[in-house]
Amino acid sequence: MTPGLDHTLGIVALGAAVLGATGGMLGSFAVLRRQSLLGDVLAHAALPGLCLGWLVAGRSVVPLMTGALLAGGLAALSVLAVGRFTRLKPDAALGIVLSVFFAAGVVMLSHVQAVGGAGAAGLSAFLFGQAAAMLQADLVAMAVVGGGAAVLVALFWKEIAAVCFDAPYARALGLPVGAIEALLTLLMAMAIVVGLQMVGVVLMTAMLIAPAVAARVWVSRLAPMVGLAAVFGVVAGVGGAVLSAGARGLATGPVVVLIATGIATVSLLLAPGRGVVWRLVRNRRLAARLEGLRVLDTLRAVAQAHGDPDYPAQTGMIAAAHGLPVDRQLRQLQAEGLVAAVCHPPEAAQHWVLTPEGRARLAMVGEKA
């Protein structure tokens, strides 16, 4: 690997790490506030702002980013206005604003490319990102935004946590809920703007939501969730930069997003306590336990019907009363010491009786019920 490529990879990897950490941190609050689609709106709304910035000042970075930030702010205000002055629900308002702004951005992009010639061709890179074109100045800007966001989150941590978990209660306490929500939206918009060159308009929302979703299923407290989401974002960013550098023709932004999505998918499947696989295992164990209790109750009912608490019930009799095959449940109950296998001459078939532990288990379940 040449020194120039090493330098470029270093800048891209650091930029992806900063973007992943910032996106994971701020995306956590969006997920908790059930405003995951807001990041998508702000990202897509940045496109007309980029085009407007190019029309005003050409390919200068500052006007482009300023235009994207202003367009994102206008989109956020539009969402609030639609929700306040119409009867549409928040998800409908977000969908309408996203569609309108992105459609306007595509129209403006077509116009800019038509009138701007080859000089405007680079604008299309903002759709899916062009990480290889990152400069050290872009990395500095990303670090400043990410560091500033981290400082603001730390300063207003208690207020942000209150607003995210219970906004009406926070408002009752006298907290400036509207100002806190506006601050979070502004920080998200700034993170999106600085990340456009890395992953683009279309994929930027994944860098906000995927790490946060992955962290949410591993932890149950806010601080660990924010920290873990930032770590997942860094892993996705650096991993995407390294993989795309090692394989010709792979765009960095999409690879970063795929890794972040993969982390989220694995987390949703395997996270202890909340993962899909863990839930399936837990539900199967619970179902088996309930079936075992039903078998115990059947044994007790048979014994009561015969007026003998130690009446030996045949396996077939238990299965008939239970309505299902019970061999597996009986073996499990025997292993737990809740039933005992006995002989009942002259019959040769296997019979079962409740043990004192089995009666105690049924009594305990009856008391809880």
TrEMBL record:
The keyword Membrane applies. The keyword Repeat does not apply. Gene3D superfamilies: ABC transporter involved in vitamin B12 uptake, BtuC. Coiled coil: none annotated. It is found in: Cell membrane. Pfam families: ABC-3 (PF00950). It is a multi-pass membrane protein. GO terms for cellular component: ATP-binding cassette (ABC) transporter complex. Its main location: membrane. GO terms for biological process: response to zinc ion; transmembrane transport. The chain crosses the membrane at residues 12-32, 37-56, 62-82, 94-127, 139-157, 169-192, 198-219, 226-247, 253-277. It comes from the Bacteria. CDD domains: TM_ABC_iron-siderophores_like. Keywords: Cell membrane, Membrane, Transmembrane, Transmembrane helix, Transport. PANTHER family: ABC-TRANSPORTER METAL-BINDING PROTEIN, METAL TRANSPORT SYSTEM MEMBRANE PROTEIN CT_069-RELATED. Belongs to the ABC-3 integral membrane protein family. This is Manganese/zinc/iron transport system permease protein.
